[in-house]
User: What shape does this take?
Amino acid sequence: MDDLNHSTLEEKLISQIRNLGIQYEWIPVNPDYADTAQFCKKYGFSVDQSGNTIIVASKRGPKIYCACLVLATDRLDVNKKVKSLMNVSRVSFANPEETTKLTGMMIGGVTIFGLPEDIPIYVDAKVLEAPKIILGGGSRSGKIIISPQDIVKIPKVQITEGLSISISQ
Assistant: This one.
């Protein structure tokens, strides 16, 4: 994707955030440092206040998708919880090409804002406990910081207990 597409997508996301009445901070990011661990190290943010939005796809039958937001310190419980939420027998992480085709976003910039309307959004309940949450900005060129309490303003978000499993750092 070129910079024009990134700018258009970022403008669309910011417009949605503003229309939902969500206060946000935009952080410009060098695309080489967009992945969570590199971003936190380079820009001095704590990984426990970062969220990862992951697109999950069914593996059998008609393809269906969902988006899941978990803390960067946790692992998505894809084989039990997500499979159960999607009501399918097998799931996997959507590959980078599939994610970009579906969302218009690149890995390292995927966010819960601006997703197609037919994609359910599941947010781990632990995300709401963070004082602030850093999310992808739609491209690898920026991140968005919001209050986790504002996540519930996004249409179709389902706050879900047990969506993630804690991992040691």
